[in-house]
Amino acid sequence: MAATIAMIDREGYAAATTERIAKQAETSKGTLLYHFKSREAIDEAVVRALYDNGAAYMTTRITAVASSRDRLRAYLSSNLRFIAENTAHVNAVHRILDNTGAHIDIPDGVPGLRQLLTSGQLNGEFDSFDVEVMALSIRAVVDAASRHFAANPNLDVDHYIDQASRIFDKATTS
């Protein structure tokens, strides 16, 4: 999978043929297709790995804190940090999703955010606001960051994370 990620990130989706991926991985096309069955299966594995790894990375950080406010900060900072630390993989996934007609079922982060925001409102940590709009706004910032980080490798990620956290801290506070 690392060979696929590196090739798509470096040379683009169209250049990442199964032959070239196999060569990059120092294996044969037959061996590659034995494990993945098709190019579509390779693409799906790359996409799923990013989301699975991201979820694991974020979950440990989010569950390590108790308050809704701290969980929201952990959600934002861990999501953005994971993106920054995995830009090649994120970029490869963008290219796969942008270039294939295949439907790859990817997790929707909005339901969990709605639950977190609703919990924060119910326990008095967050002000009154439309939970759906706030959850979609948070996701929009994270999703935009995934492309912005790849396009700007010298970006001050810590500053970006701090600013995004401050924006949503103020937006959720009375």
UniProtKB/TrEMBL annotation:
PROSITE patterns: HTH_TETR_2. It comes from the Bacteria. This is AcrR family transcriptional regulator. GO terms for molecular function: DNA binding. It comes from Micromonospora polyrhachis. SUPFAM superfamilies: Homeodomain-like, Tetracyclin repressor-like, C-terminal domain. GO terms for biological process: regulation of DNA-templated transcription. Keywords: DNA-binding. Residues 17-36 bind DNA. Residues 1-54 form the HTH tetR-type domain.
